[in-house]
Amino acid sequence: MTEEERLIEKLQLIEALYAGAATPGERQAAAAARDRIRERLKSQQQTDPPIEYSFKLRDRWSHKLLIALIRRYQLRPYRYPGQRYTTVMVRAPRSFVDEVLWPEFTQLNQTLANFLNSVTDRVIAQGIHADAGEVEVATGQLSDTTPASSGFEQS
User: Fold this and answer.
1) 91 contacts: CB under 8 Å, gap ≥ 6
2) Domain-wise residue ranges, the chain
3) Using CA atoms, how far apart are residues 85 and 56, in angstroms rounded to an integer?
4) Which are the contacts of 73, defined by CB distance < 8 A and separation ≥ 6?
5) pTM here?
6) pLDDT digit string (tens) for the chain, length 155 residues
């Protein structure tokens, strides 16, 4: 099983967890879990009217993940003119966002970030240099005599 297949399986297990599945499994169980979450959302919309949420995300990966998750539950992600690309708006019941959408997104996002970080580390180590660790912390004061290169900020 490849790393990508393990990641997909892990993401499906997280989804099954938020759907309340007792024994999450392969595709069939994941589809049933998604259906249970959608049904829960429909019932929550009857008792808990949707309100508008604004999510401000830090990176494109999180942005794409949240949009996919929102659409998976048949909600409509949007943003207003003038809002940043990484802002995602959605109208959803508070209970659904608090109990399902945000906790599931947080867990999926952490899983995806860990995977992307490990792939990045491996590619850099194999393609550029094995030591891509953190920079050392220099003692003393900051110097403003270093010339700035094009595209970089000078300290």
Assistant:
1) 50, 51, 52, 53, 75, 76
2) 3-122
3) 9
4) 34, 37, 38, 41, 96, 100, 101
5) 0.68
6) 777 677 777 777 776 666 655 554 555 666 676 777 777 777 777 788 899 999 999 999 999 999 999 999 899 999 999 999 999 999 999 989 998 899 999 999 999 898 888 888 888 888 888 887 788 888 887 766 555 555 555 45
Match 């009857």 to its residue by tokens: 46
Dmax (CA) of the chain: 64
Structure tokens at 136: 């050392």
What Å distances lie between residue 71 and 78, 92, 116, 152, CA to CA? 11, 12, 22, 38
Q: Please name the helix (run of DSSP H) or strand (run of DSSP E) that holds residue 90, with its range, or none.
A: strand 87-92
* Measured distance CA(119)–CA(136) in Å, rounded: 23
What's the chain's Rg over C-alpha atoms?
Answer: 21
The two structure tokens encoding residue 148: 């700035």
